[in-house]
Design a protein that fits this description.
By secondary structure, this protein is an alpha/beta fold. It has 12 helices and 13 strands. The chain has a 7-stranded mixed β-sheet with strand order 2-8-7-6-5-3-4, sandwiched between helices. A 4-stranded antiparallel β-sheet has the order 9-10-13-12, with helices on one face.
């Protein structure tokens, strides 16, 4: 199979990741924080080392500010439900995923939260920072929520600039880094990001069901769930110490062990320049008649993108194209990609979305060449 759906979840994972997961199931592995035997200590060590790796990877000084979740969706829900209050104003961008918009719309109904969405450039999806400045001068939002990179066209958003504008007005920023982690520079502590949400299973090559949340000031947030932590067990109230305050229940030790292995792999291997593969992909798609590339205009060389390219076929339907690609064992994704706002901005909502190609760290230019030949037949 030629796997080009890494924006959904990466494959293959880092070499040895599966074995690291299996080891936690084949050997004794205790419940972290709740045992004094060697198996439990090993589980504690996995959590500690992974936290340290994340802190090092994202240049954060105190690793205790990274909390483990099941992924970006849980991290975002923890922030939005734990921080926003009745009647708050939230500013968000034009390209947000439903992991942002569905919790916000729920809070709009249940807590009368007001949502203001920035307009986006119809060619690129880039948020209008001039409009953000106007809003910050006229209003005082409780929170700004922005994606770090679009899952529809791969545009890397100006997170550092957004944090700078927000910081001048004292407005906290929450970043959805699901698509950007592992593909773009992200410095939450340096840039002043208050809430930084990420997944382990995409650009960081870990197993599904893994994620983390960095919180600059844990006292500002109430936990999404409460329960056993292995600490302060004589008390029937949630402990305030971090990360325990936000990590009730038994963690996903197999998944986190696999993610730890993948982070080790990323640290120990030279960073692969994916520019050659992406350039080859975009060049191949531009050469083909019957395809329109979405959100990658030729005259915007100043913008940066992740390894995501979306197209709309002009001679066949999205589903026909995806079906035929699948028949040739080429894995892509078709549809709205859980981001209807992004498609509305880019003008592909009424069309039913796009066909998305997302090569990964292990994709080769030979595979892109094979893809081009097969697309010629299909189109």
């Amino acid at each position: 199979m030629i796997y080009l759906d890494n924006a959904a979840t990466s494959w293959p994972k880092a070499p040895g990741c599966a074995e690291a997961v299996a080891e936690t199931l084949l050997k004794p592995m205790g419940n972290p924080g709740r045992t004094s035997h060697s198996a439990g200590i090993q589980a504690d060590r996995i959590l500690f080392e992974l936290r340290e790796h994340l802190a090092d990877f994202f240049s954060v000084r105190d690793s205790a500010h990274f909390l483990f979740t099941s992924g970006t969706t849980e991290s975002l829900n923890t922030v939005l439900n734990g921080y926003l209050r009745e009647g708050d104003l939230v500013v968000t961008g034009p390209m947000e995923h439903n992991a942002v918009m569905r919790p916000l719309n729920y809070l709009a109904q249940s807590l009368n939260v007001t949502i203001m969405r920035l307009p986006g450039n119809p060619e690129t999806g880039a948020p209008d920072l001039g409009e953000l400045e106007k809003i910050l001068k006229a209003e005082h939002p409780r929170l700004i929520v922005t994606t770090a990179a679009s899952n529809v066209n791969g545009l890397i958003h100006p997170v550092e600039e957004i944090c700078h504008l927000a910081g001048k007005r004292g407005v906290p920023v929450c970043v959805d880094a699901a698509q950007a982690a592992g593909e773009a520079e992200l410095l939450p502590e340096k840039w002043g990001i208050d809430f930084f949400c990420l997944s382990g299973h995409k650009g960081l090559l870990g197993p599904s069901g893994t994620g983390a949340l960095y919180i600059k000031d844990p006292d500002r947030l109430t936990p999404l769930k409460r329960g056993g932590t292995g600490s302060r067990s004589s008390e029937e109230i949630q402990p305030e110490l971090i990360p325990d305050k936000f990590e009730s229940g038994t963690p996903n030790i197999p998944g986190l062990a696999g993610w730890l292995h993948s982070m080790n792999y990323l640290r120990e291997t030279a960073e692969k320049d994916q520019g050659t593969v992406i350039d080859a992909l975009i060049s191949s798609l531009r050469d083909l008649e019957g395809l329109k590339i979405i959100g990658h205009p030729l005259d915007h060389k100043d913008l940066n993108y992740t390894s995501v390219v979306s197209v709309v076929p002009t001679r066949i339907t999205l589903s026909e194209m995806t079906l035929k690609l699948n028949q040739y064992e080429i894995a892509v994704r078709s549809g709205l990609h859980c981001a209807p706002g992004a498609h509305k901005t880019l003008g592909t909502l009424e069309n039913g979305g796009t066909v998305r190609f997302s090569p990964g760290r292990f994709t080769t230019t030979h595979e892109i060449s094979q893809l081009k030949d097969l697309l010629k037949k299909i189109l």
